[in-house]
Design a protein that fits this description.
alpha+beta, 168 residues, 3 helices, two-stranded antiparallel sheet
């Protein structure tokens, strides 16, 4: 899985989490869907536990990591300070691995649209930014990984609580 960010956000706020998570799936950019349930409530693991990047789901809040190749992320309680909130996921269409550039392009396009809907404010007007967990060629091939998980973050610092409908 790989985590990527928009260039400005990457430089500004997420230098440690970026570039090369090994092990998440990706999905088609055409239909991102939010998880049904309690937004801001961790669904993958108990807070304080590192969880496999394949299990990060919408509603989970996670903290950054200094690892270059990330296979696990620390799940934290969304009510407290956290670096990222997962807000949607989608599947990339079946077939051969389309390449990192195409996967990242699909992830960026879909996550930006979905973030505006989640936050309640158009991406261009929001102070928040997106990152995403994407499949690597290895996870695509070996684990049939097609899922992209979109994460929202604040380049100015940690989030506290969910940002669903926060209009910031």
């Amino acid at each position: 899985m790989t985590i990527r960010s928009l260039p400005l956000a990457l430089a500004a706020a997420a230098a440690a989490l970026v570039l090369s998570l090994t092990g998440c799936a990706g999905g088609g950019a055409s239909d991102p869907t939010r998880a049904v349930g309690d937004p801001g409530a961790s669904q993958a693991a108990d807070p304080g536990v590192k969880t496999d990047v394949f299990t990060v789901k919408p509603g989970d809040c996670v903290d950054d990591t200094d690892d270059e190749n990330v296979t696990e992320l620390p799940v934290v309680d969304c009510a407290g300070p956290h670096d990222f909130e997962a807000f949607t996921s989608f599947e990339i269409d079946e077939g051969e691995f389309p390449g990192d550039d195409e996967v990242n392009s699909q992830a960026q396009d879909a996550c930006i649209v979905a973030m505006g809907e989640f936050v309640g404010l158009d991406y261009a007007e929001s102070k928040l930014d997106v990152q995403y967990l994407t499949p690597s060629e290895d996870s695509w091939t070996k684990r049939d990984d097609r899922t992209v998980v979109c994460l929202v973050f604040d380049p100015a610092g940690k989030l506290t609580g969910t940002v669903e409908n926060a209009a910031i």
